Amino acid sequence: MKKILVTGALGQIGSELVIKMRGIYGKDNVIATDIREIDCEVVTGGPFEILDVTNAEKMMEIAKRHEVDTIIHLAALLSATAEAQPLLAWNLNMGGIVNALEVARELDCKFFTPSSIGAFGPSTPKDHTPQDTIQRPTTMYGVNKVSGELLCDYYYNKFGVDTRGLRFPGLISYATPPGGGTTDYAVDIYYKAIENGSYTSYIDKGTYMDMMYMPDALNAIINLMEADPTKLKHRNSFNVTAMSIEPEMVAAEIRKHIPDFKLDYDVDPVRQGIADSWPNSIDASAASEEWGFKAEYDLARMTEDMLEKLKK
To answer: CB burial class (10 A; 0-12, 13-18, 19+) of residue 133?
Structure first.
């Protein structure tokens, strides 16, 4: 990767990935794009362009002008937001990825886009979900993610585009507030612990979902994109995870630092239904074997770092 175009650069992943990659590859070699512009380091710290990913001509023009060799396509609606606006989600999520893949095909770019545990459904094995298993999601977000995995496979097999992707679990970050995902309770609970010492969870107790701390997610993207392509068998759908947790576990860990922290529940049936359709825990052995994936943060280490960073 020498010249990297990032779509959705102001989102949860992009806002941290752009800064990290500029530190590695040089600030002028990571071109951030988003549909909006705000005063932040992503916008002011290097090249930035306004881009609606449904505008194929604009995406191609930006990529050609900056002579990019890699596309990191992150622009998408997240699970809960997508379920509230399914047609918008289809048009944005699928229209955007097709446009980005076409740019990658024409300009011979390496290509990354994230998939998700949302690509699984109620009929998928719930515990230690295998790398290769049945995928019949019941949400528009999940349909988008499975379709994206298959499209990336198609562009690799049909056109030789060097496509790569990760099935991310819920991502937890101190740098970006919650943004419409089902797993966002595990982000918001830390913010509320610092702000007022209590949190009301929209996900019920005992609901296990896989999670990952953002530093591990950023390293996973970079390491996958730098991996030897000849060793990649599951190019566009690697299971990755760091921990399988439920709300009471997070609360117990927070109480080690904030003893009076209180957790109660007001379950959102829409997001609970989405969570119930996803795995309890997934098997990430293929990622470990094919390109050396390993998460560094467990729940205890993540909680300590989250609270320390948020207090600052």
So the answer is: middle
235-294 pLDDT, tens digit per residue, is 999 999 999 999 999 999 999 999 999 999 999 999 999 999 999 999 999 999 999 999
Active site residues: 141
pLDDT band (50, 70, 90) for residue 20: very high
Alpha-carbon span 110 to 238, nearest angstrom = 17
**DSSP bridge pairs for 264:** 200
Whole-model pTM: value is 0.94
Q: Do the beta carbons of residue 205 and residue 265 sit within 8 Å?
A: yes
Give percent helix, percent strand, percent coil of the chain, each to the nearest 5: 50, 15, 35
Residues 84-118 pLDDT 10s: 999 999 999 999 999 999 999 999 999 999 999 99
Cβ contact 135:119 at 8 Å: yes
Number of C-beta neighbours around residue 234 at 10 A: 20
Residue 58, burial from CB neighbour count under 10 angstroms (0-12, 13-18, 19+): middle
Q: Which residue segments constitute the domains of the chain, with CATH numbers given?
A: 4-169+213-239 (3.40.50.720), 171-211+242-281+297-311 (3.90.25)
Residue with tokens 């117990």: 252
SS3 label, residue 201? strand
Exposure on the CB side of residue 233, measured as CA atoms within 13 A? 9
The separation between CA 86 and the C-alpha centre of its own chain, rounded to angstroms, equals: 19
Q: Do 165 and 231 meet the contact criterion of CB atoms below 8 Å apart?
A: no
